[in-house]
Specification:
Helices cover 45% and strands 13% of the residues. The chain is α+β, with helices and mostly antiparallel strands. The chain has a single domain, classed as Glutaredoxin (3-Layer(aba) Sandwich), CATH 3.40.30.10. The protein has a five-stranded mixed sheet with strand order 1-3-2-4-5. The protein is globular.
Length: 191
């Protein structure tokens, strides 16, 4: 007799979690680690860019915890995915960077609460690594694309190798934001 297994939970993958206008001409993707100082600084830059280019920029964060040096980064990434299931990814994301020196499991539970997560089973899901595979998917994708260190950025699908500051990003974003959309998007659908 087949034993019944627990119903599978549909988990929203991070590649589908964006912030900013959907129709924004510029798409910025960052692979990062919540315990990393350079990633935290990069996140501040991204937040400034999101303000500066409101309506022109859309941002997506992908997980790339450097587990050899950051023991708690993987669990923190899992916690952000847990928060994402209630639409609280960005609240949790910014909180994790702000509290990057205190990312123990119990702390993660309190940050979830602070972010507005109401799931009573948040901690047990974290302990059971319910979202662990979601983090691995990002890690594997990053590794397959040759990412070895973070922060790592893509702008409109192209690798960005410039300095991580508002001015350097702005030069690229300004050019891309002015480009006319491809002809195929201009085709009007008949009602």
């Amino acid at each position: 007799m087949a034993h019944s297994k627990a119903p599978e939970i549909e988990i929203i993958p991070t590649k589908n979690i964006w912030v900013g206008a959907k129709e924004a001409p510029v798409k910025l993707v960052m692979f990062g680690d919540y315990e990393s100082e350079p990633c935290a600084k990069a996140n501040e830059v991204v937040n400034q860019l999101m303000e500066k280019y409101e309506g022109k920029l859309q941002f997506n964060f992908r997980h790339f915890p450097l587990t050899k040096i950051h023991q708690r980064a993987h669990k923190a990434a899992e916690a952000s995915i847990g928060a994402a299931q209630e639409g609280k990814f960005w609240e949790m994301h910014n909180l994790l960077f702000a509290k990057r020196r205190q990312l123990g499991t119990i702390s993660l539970k309190s940050y979830a609460k602070e972010s507005g997560v109401t799931d009573k089973n948040f901690l047990s899901k974290l302990v059971d690594s319910v979202y662990g595979w979601s983090v691995r998917i990002d890690l594997l994708e990053g590794a397959n694309n040759g990412i070895k260190d973070v922060p790592f950025f893509y702008i409109n699908g192209e690798v960005y190798n410039g300095p991580v500051n508002v001015n350097a990003f702005s030069k690229v974003i300004d050019v891309l934001a002015k480009k006319k959309p491809a002809a195929k998007t201009a085709v009007k659908k008949r009602a």
